[in-house]
Write a structure and sequence with these properties.
The structure is a single chain. This protein is α/β, with parallel strands linked by helices and 297 residues long. The protein is built from twelve helices and ten strands. A ten-stranded mixed beta sheet has the order 3-2-1-4-5-10-9-6-7-8, sandwiched between helices. It is elongated and about 75 Å long.
Length: 297
């Protein structure tokens, strides 16, 4: 697949959001399409602006907010455009943050949405849920959550797979967004009814026989999954693990220290609009590296 041609980075103008802004600009430059939208939501305002709001009507207050956000967004967009030789289009929206991001991404037909992993209001996010998670629940577009300082292009990727079409899409995104990077493809298998077998005191050698079969099936499935794929300038590093998928991927991420985890997300059912998959949610909150979620649209 091709690299993303139109990137939307959503920012609350916090210092943490600056990481997402820079990474989005780096990706736009790497793609060679020279186009990125920067949309600001819920911007922090200087103290003198807040004082002025108390003497204004609601409409005047909203305009003060918008003007302040526009000025700050333009100030941040200008050096990004100059440094990375891209065109940055600043846009300020008013409303509920996650809904505004999803709506604007649809409006501009963004190929990739980039957000920061941490917002300016940490306590509020701990109680109400992170913006990134809310966007993931409702959006149908690929999304990159940036947590680390973007010092260089991505060099080591971890792509957890379950051999589904969404996993295939995730791997395609990984190869497109980080050509030449080391790509670690991981699958965590479980033995059907293992806990029941052990509870029933089934002999260890019998359980190990089930293990061997499941491990062999997982290896065959991995080989078939990767058969017709070859990343540029490197080969896949394969990891077949036994255990709970979320815990297995988290432990592997701690061992490998990737700078990007790429995961697939299935199409939007009504249930998935309310809940994220277990593995995806664990990776979002329990790892420190960036995370890209490739949606099935």
């Amino acid at each position: 697949m091709e690299k993303p041609a139109h990137i939307l980075v959503a920012t609350d103008l916090s210092s943490h959001a600056g990481k997402a802004e820079t990474r989005a600009a780096m990706l736009a430059q790497d793609a060679g399409h020279e186009e990125a939208d920067a949309a600001a939501y819920g911007a922090a305002l200087p103290l003198q602006t807040l004082r002025a709001m108390f003497e204004r009507t609601p409409l005047e207050t909203e305009q003060i907010l918008v003007n302040a956000a526009k000025a700050e967004l333009a100030r941040r967009a200008r050096p990004l455009g100059e440094k990375f030789h891209i065109e940055v289009t600043p846009v300020v929206k008013v409303g509920r943050v996650h809904l505004g991001i999803v709506a604007h991404a649809d409006e501009v037909n963004a190929d990739l949405v980039v957000v920061g992993g941490y917002g300016a209001h940490l306590v509020r996010e701990l109680f109400l849920g992170a913006t990134a998670e809310k966007v993931l629940r409702t959006s149908t577009r690929p999304m990159l959550i940036v947590k680390q300082e973007p010092l260089s292009p991505y060099k080591r990727l971890l792509v957890p797979v379950d051999f589904s079409p969404s996993s295939s899409r995730a791997l395609d995104w990984g190869m497109a967004i980080a050509a030449g990077a080391e790509i670690n493809v991981a699958h965590v298998y479980e033995v059907p009814n293992e806990s029941t077998l052990r509870y029933a005191s089934v002999e260890d050698k019998v359980v190990e026989g089930y293990h061997a079969v499941a491990r062999h099936q997982a290896r065959d499935a991995m080989s078939a999954f990767l058969k017709d794929r070859r990343p540029a300038e490197t080969d896949f590093q394969r990891h077949i693990l036994h255990g709970h998928p979320a815990a297995g991927i988290r432990d592997l991420a701690e061992e490998l220290r990737p700078d990007l985890i790429v995961m697939g997300k299935h199409g939007q059912s009504e249930i998935e609009k309310l809940l994220l998959g277990s593995v995806t949610r664990h990776m979002l909150f329990e790892t420190h590296c960036d995370m890209l979620v490739a949606m099935e649209r």
